[in-house]
Design brief:
The chain is α+β, with helices and mostly antiparallel strands. The protein has two helices and three strands; from the N terminus they run βββαα. The chain has one domain. It starts with a strand and ends in a 13-residue tail after the last helix.
């Protein structure tokens, strides 16, 4: 699965540029699901400035939030993408009485 960050929203507390809300997408190359989540406040001792963050780090933080209290929402999003890709789309056919 391909995880991408599509948008971030920041606060200036507890540090300037603290990432607060993250929009993300999950894709298998065919189907995509998009959502957003609120991140936990960062540890101020290990704070990473906004300009120094990488997409991989933010994806990791998003996945940490989505795996809270034994609820695996990472798996949920990935399964939803798979279901969307594997969805059988009904074929439109002529009405049998219109011969």
């Amino acid at each position: 699965m391909i995880w991408q960050i599509t948008k971030i929203k920041t606060l200036n507390s507890p540090n300037e540029g603290t990432i607060s809300i993250v929009n993300f997408s999950v894709s298998d190359g065919v189907s995509t699901i998009e959502s957003e989540t609120k991140l936990n406040y960062p540890n101020t001792d290990n704070f990473i400035e906004l300009k120094d963050t990488t997409e991989e780090q933010v994806i990791g933080w998003v996945k940490d939030v989505l795996n809270y209290n034994g609820i695996n929402q990472v798996e949920y999003f990935e399964n939803m993408v798979t279901l969307k890709t594997n969805e059988v789309i009904p074929e439109e056919v002529p009405l049998p009485w219109d011969k």
